[in-house]
Amino acid sequence: MNALVKLKTLTPAVNQIVRSYALKSDLKIKWVRPEKIPCYKPEKSGDLQALPQYAGTELMKDFRDSKELESANEHVRNLFTLEHNRRREMVENFKEDMVRRVYRHELDYGSMEAKLGLMTARIRSLQEYMEKFPRQSVVKVQLKELIDKRKRYLRYLRRWDYRRFEYILEQLDLVYKPYPTHFHWITRKDSLRKLTTIHCDQIKENRLDEYRKHLESQQLDFLEKKLKTLEFVRQEQMECRVPVTVTPEEIKAVRKQYEELKEKRAALAASLKEAEDS
């Protein structure tokens, strides 16, 4: 019976407990999980240029220098154009263009630059294909492997020949995106912790800016008061015949600072007035 009486006396005190601290939810910070971008997308692979759109009237790679087609009928010539052939022929043309951007000589197809040009052309071709057919898992695996292989080549060049590495990135329109040094999962807790820190830093900066503006608004009155105080102290010390601690140079420096600030404030007020009138 005594225990029940004690519980009855404690219940009002428990109900009166009020939380006096803030939670992260009170800051009204909303976190939205970022959209997952596949690694084969141009945003992740670093390709700044897509596969070019050819007009279709270009001849295939093996028939560009054919003298018979120069004098052939229009219908016969159309049979050897990119428009009336497989997509692979267009990709072959693009591969040749990419190799010509970085090759060392006309027959160069085995150097590091030529290999990177061929891989880049192949990657952009597969990326365009994946945009149309995103469920092709076999092509997706091939594309991922090609992107990883090109990244390994670029990492090697970046380490041993940085000038050639920069040249290839510029010619092929690429951005090198290395792997992160530390892998971590994107979680709501960590993201909210970062957002809360950013929010608190922003509040701190805003309050410091407000305090700085408040001090700047009182600076002119402070300098005027300081100038009068220094002049008074120097005059009293001279009259009382005690060692003078305030030099004329100090008074002159404060007066100069006061005059400059006063002119600056007057010019600022005049410019604001002209802006309002206009």
UniProtKB/TrEMBL annotation:
Pfam families given in the database record: Ribosomal_S15
Q: Which domain of life is it from?
A: Eukaryota
Q: Does the keyword Coiled coil apply?
A: yes
Give the record's keywords alphabetically: Coiled coil, Mitochondrion, Ribonucleoprotein, Ribosomal protein, Transit peptide
Q: Does the keyword Transit peptide apply?
A: yes
Chain segments annotated as coiled-coil in the UniProt record:
251-278
Q: Where in the cell is it found?
A: Mitochondrion
Q: What is its main location?
A: mitochondrion
GO molecular function annotation: RNA binding; structural constituent of ribosome
Which GO biological process annotations does it have?
mitochondrial translation
Q: Which cellular components does GO assign to this protein?
A: mitochondrial small ribosomal subunit
Database matches in InterPro entries: Ribosomal_uS15, uS15_NS1_RNA-bd_sf, uS15_ribosomal
Instruction: Supply the PANTHER family for this chain.
Output: 28S RIBOSOMAL PROTEIN S15, MITOCHONDRIAL, SMALL RIBOSOMAL SUBUNIT PROTEIN US15M
Recorded family membership = Belongs to the universal ribosomal protein uS15 family.
Protein name, as recorded: Small ribosomal subunit protein uS15m
The record lists the organism as Anopheles atroparvus
